[in-house]
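Holo prediction — zinc ion.
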Amino acid sequence: MKIINNVVKLKSNSYIDFIDLTKDVEKFVLQSKIKNGQVLVYSTHTTLAICINESERGIFADFKDLLCKLIPKETYYRHNDLSIRTENLVCDPTASDCLNGHSHCTHFLMRNSEVVPIIDGKLMLGIWQRILAIELDCSRDRTVIIQTMGV
Ligand code: ZN
């Protein structure tokens, strides 16, 4: 069995930015020459989700509206309360991008990775399925691991 690791570096634009990774994943699967197996698409972040869904602007806007209602940015989060928070304070505590309690809460409800079967050298995505990275924080540099494994 072969295991091939690829790294995708990207920069998201804003909160709830949808980035379609499908072409990158297809390219790495093709390059791997693996005919049967699976590919893992994995976010190395706590505020960047990986989800398979349709790539369509209407559903993207609908989902953003839903998240803003479910998990509003402008409410109290202990993660943002620097008078009580003592852990993982690596960022500038006065910087607004440190105050991302809503981003972590959203990520808990979503997925950090997706796995897609490879059969006869092809990704087994349905006709409308796309592999999406979804930014849950502000614009950031991001890293996604794409691990292809099989024979
Ligand atoms: Zn945080």
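READOUT: The chain has three helices and eight strands.
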